[in-house]
Amino acid sequence: MSFLNSLPFELFVGLRYTRAKRRNHFISFISMTSMVGISLGVAALIVVLSVMNGFQQELRTRILGVASHLQITGANNVLADWPSLTAELRKTEHVRAAAPYIMAQGMLSNGPAVQGTIVRGVLPALEDQVAELGAHMRAGSLDDLKPGGFGIVLGVELAQSLGLIVGDKVVLMAPQGQFTPTGVVPRIKQFTLVGMFQIGMYEYDAGLALIHMDDAAKLYRMGENVSGVRLKLDDLFRAPAVSRDLTSLLSNSGPYYLSDWTQQHANFFRAVQMEKRVMFIILTLIVAVAAFNIVSTLVMAVTDKRADIAIMRTFGASPRSIMQIFIVQGALIGFIGTILGGICGIIVAFNIDVIVPFIERLFNIQFLAKDVYYISDLPSQLLWSDVSMIVLLSFLLSLLATLYPSWKAAKMNPAEALRYE
User: Fold this and answer.
1) How far is the C-alpha of 39 from the C-alpha of 329, rounded, in Å?
2) Phi and psi of 230, rounded to 5°?
3) Cβ–Cβ < 8 Å for 391, 338
4) Torsion sign across C-alpha atoms 211, 263, 375, 352
5) Phi/psi at 176 (5° precision)
């Protein structure tokens, strides 16, 4: 009691009103409903945003397993003197690795099965430094691509559509033709399937073929040239800034074209970000509805405490003090609900990899079937910035909901309030 007695008058009375047993139990029920609603809304927001962050990170990881953070190409898809450029780029700040490549279109044929594909000529030792393709190999290895060996690595979907297994022969046709006495015929070369990868992105699994860069140079008659250089940075989110710096640095060296991973997949990541924002707005409405239930609670509390308000006014309490008393009462409901919801949401977000399998086993269901979805587990990435924003927004909505009832209480006429008491 000594602690409570030392509190300011408004805070002391507001806490007493919150802790006191009410004569009107319906007011207590509405208060509890508001608190539970805020808790559920905050917890749902934290869990859903964490899951969406997890999906975004998982998809970004899969995309960057094949794509690079940053790539530099030359005019007409030809880059000369790439060894000196690569050596210069490796010395640049934030660049961890650089690998040349040859990119072209091709047609794969195995008997009656024919599929168009993007062909990428790579140096296996350097390619594994700029991408994480080696971690997604389902058969064979990138090191099986030997210069002059004419081996090829295909995505799982592409290999299945052609009816190929490791060790089979497949014909690769280059669209650039060569002139012969009988006319223009495409350049054709037989390759041996030495490996298969599975990224989990249909764009790559069904449309990408990897061969050694020396074999690609011979097939597409690139000579000593390449199509470009791929870079890996120490922080993938620095890619736009590094791209701008390199554009200024290389502006006098020749016609170079730079693009980072955010530009190459801009529409995809914008769609994911838009979904996250829409889900945030929708779930915030749950918190808003629960927070504005506080309005009903305080309106009934003000009506219930008309006599108390009048007595406090006659003893010298100012309208501002009366307003602060009911703000404290409503804010405490919002604060407790927000904290409880935040704690529950954080616990669920950190343990969703345990909770979801338990629910699936309990009800014998599967939320993300492995034969339908590439990502069959619910990933979760809790960002403390999201938690802080959700908690702050929830408390502000709760505080906003207290203003009107508190203002009405402050404007109450003591004589009118005591007339019928």
Assistant:
1) 17
2) -105, 140
3) yes
4) positive
5) -70, 120
Cβ–Cβ under 8 Å, residues 378 and 52: no
Residue 3 backbone dihedrals phi, psi, to 5 degrees: -65, -45
What is the rounded CA–CA span in Å between residue 397 and residue 108? 60
pLDDT in tens, 50-65: 888 888 887 777 777 6
- Please state, rounded to an integer, the average pLDDT across all residues of the chain: 80
Structure token digits, residue 182: 């009988």
Question: Tokens at residue 393, please?
Answer: 């927004």
Q: What angle do CA 320, 325, 329 make, to 5 degrees?
A: 145
Q: Are 306 and 413 in contact (CB under 8 A)?
A: no
User: Among residues 245, 155, 142, which one has the least CA distance to residue 202?
Assistant: 155
**Helix or strand holding residue 15 (H, E):** helix 9-19
CA nearest 382: which of 45, 40, 39? Answer: 45
The C-alpha atoms of residue 219 and residue 211 are separated, in whole angstroms, by 10
| DSSP string over 298-364 | HHHHHHHTHHHHHHHHHTT--HHHHHHHHHHHHHHHHHHHHHHHHHHHHHHHHTHHHHHHHHHHHHT
Helix 403-410 × helix 266-304 angle, to 10°: 30
Residues, the chain: 421
Q: Which of 405, 394, 395 lies closest to 295, judged by CA?
A: 405
Alpha-carbon span 406 to 388, nearest angstrom: 27
pTM for this model (two decimals): 0.70
**Nearest Cα residue to 145 out of 154, 155, 158, 136:** 154
CB atoms within 10 A of CB 90: 13
Instruction: Check whether 273 has a pLDDT greater than 90.
Output: no
Q: How many Å apart are CA 87 and CA 223, to the nearest integer?
A: 20
Asked if residue 39 lies in contact with residue 395, where contact means CB atoms within 8 angstroms, the answer is no
Other beta carbons within 10 angstroms of residue 270's beta carbon come to: 11
CA pair distance 81, 409, nearest whole angstrom: 80
CA distances from residue 315 to 308, 310, 311 in whole angstroms, order as listed: 11, 9, 6
CA 144 to chain CA centroid, nearest Å? 35
Within 8 A by CB and 6+ apart from 249, the residues are 92
Q: Which residues of 312-321 are buried (b: 16+ CB within 10 A; e: fewer)?
A: bbeeebeeeb
> pLDDT confidence of 325, banded at 50, 70, 90?
confident
pLDDT tens digits for range 169-207? 999 988 776 655 555 567 888 999 999 998 877 778 888
